[in-house]
Design brief:
mainly alpha, Helix Hairpins
């Protein structure tokens, strides 16, 4: 006998639930994402304070999403690497370094966008 499959809508709702669970795990357990989340709150407050334009909001929100998403992927890569090869290994270290480098590139890009948005408003 075959089991009844869930509907498309039920499957999508379950997927959203798992994604939300993953985001909460990140926020509860990862120091770097906590810092990035705090920065995201601060620049969001700054955006309201300085009344940034809709275009500036688009860039700001995109950069927050980019940095936090890549940090999540970096964390997942670290978990997988540690699971596969728990002891120190040069190739695993290189994989982790490259993933961390991706976060660094996104973070530098976000800082550049923030400077472009806020420098004229501050000076």
């Amino acid at each position: 006998m075959s089991e009844k499959k869930d509907s498309f809508l039920v499957n999508r709702l379950k997927s959203v639930g798992w994604a939300f669970k993953g985001a909460l795990i990140l926020l509860r357990t990862e120091a770097s994402i906590k810092i990035q989340f705090a920065i995201a709150i601060l620049v969001t407050i700054a955006g309201f304070y300085f009344e940034i334009s809709p275009t500036e909001w688009l860039f700001q929100v995109a950069m927050i999403g980019l940095v936090m998403s890549i940090e999540g992927l970096n964390t997942a890569i670290e978990f997988i690497a540690d699971f596969i090869h728990p002891e120190r290994h040069d190739k695993i270290g290189r994989i982790k370094d490259v993933a961390a480098g991706a976060v660094f590139i996104a973070a530098i890009s976000a800082v550049i966008v923030a400077v472009i948005i806020y420098y004229p408003k501050l000076f």
